[in-house]
Amino acid sequence: MRALNLALAELSLILAVKVAESSPLAILFPTKLLYVLLILPLALTFMRRNPYDLPVLIVALALVTVKLLTNSEAFYSLLDALYYLGYRDLSENLNSLFLAYKGSCLPQLTAIVVMFTVAQISWRLRRLEKLGIDLRHPLSILIVFGVAVVLFFPSVAEFRIGGMPLLFLGLSGLCLILLAVLLLA
Hints:
Order of helices and strands: HHHHHHHHH
Oligomer: single chain
Radius of gyration: 20 Å
Helix content: over 70%
Structural class: mainly alpha
Distance between the termini: 18 Å
Largest sheet: none
């Protein structure tokens, strides 16, 4: 299971770096240097820790969030505030600069979160095996959970309740995680 977690961690970091290469980070510094971050899961493996632990997720989410923020209302509110405060040229320059980075990174973000969830479940399964609790097919549990999330995510993401699809998405994700924990216990 450690090899599965290492592979998932490396894949999610590669995916996050690819998103960062097409984000405004590419303006600030060479994004090829971000590939050094692929050492982090290997270092955690040599330390006998979970290769896809919370620090790796935080790094991956931080890289993806940069592109996500340039498409958000918060970014455009910042531009409006700059425009209102009299920095019209700066606001227009930032808008034209970041206009090239429009696009959705929600599928990549979803893949990173699903890989993290599968890695955490596999790590917990490994701990249960060490405690002597026998699970017949732990890898099949992981595969079914991962495929279910990937298959049902597009339909859940389009579903709206009172104009708040993210609330339903969050609640359904919480229910799926609780269901997985109950099935594994």
